[in-house]
Amino acid sequence: MTRKPASSKKISISTDEEEAVPLDMTDIALLKSLGRNSRVSLSDLAKISKMSRQTVADRIRRMERLGIIKGWHVDLNPSTLGLPLSAYVRIRPMQGQLSTLARLAESIPNITECHRITGDDCFLMRLYVTSVRDLERIIDQLLPYGQTTTSIVQSTPVPLRSPPLPPSPE
After folding, report:
1. Among 63, 96, 129, 158, whose CB has the most other CB atoms within 10 angstroms?
2. Does residue 46 have a pLDDT over 80?
């Protein structure tokens, strides 16, 4: 197999710990390929990058260890699972209820995301439900701890995607 020399030009990316992590053009190319199809085989990645399968595996493990690749996920279609309605709920907790609301959100399986946010509200939650009645039931669980504002999703013109990768170093 012909090996492609690793680019000597590197860029630095900050991880959650704010440490600079050097990535070269090959790392960025691997991330782009994985972003398009996270199930691509190591053999296919090796062919695309013109490196050995082991070298590709080592690079991926390194990016996992550094926190650049945080995990591997299945993208489920909620509608096919009987959850056709999606909504966002913003919550302004009552005095002293912040941690209680965070624990409650974690305990409700229909809440798939909960973000601590700035502004008048403290939390933004995304949830999937079977019906408006089901949505109301979940909101009723949250109401004793704060004021809610709910927005039902009509459509998703930009579905969840990875953040943009840095430009390749030149």
Report:
1. 129
2. yes
Binned at pLDDT 50, 70 and 90, residue 17 comes out as low
Taking the CA of residue 83 as centre, how many other CA atoms within 13 Å lie in the half-sphere pointing to its CB?
16
CATH for 10-65, options being 2.40.10.10, 1.10.10.10, 3.30.50.10, 3.40.50.620: 1.10.10.10
**Structural contact between residues 162 and 35, judged by C-beta atoms closer than 8 angstroms:** yes
Q: What's the fold here for domain 78-152?
A: Alpha-Beta Plaits (3.30.70)
Round to whole Å and give the CA distance between 133 and 124.
20
Identity of the residue numbered 146: G
Tens of pLDDT, residue by residue over 19-39, are 667 789 999 999 999 988 999
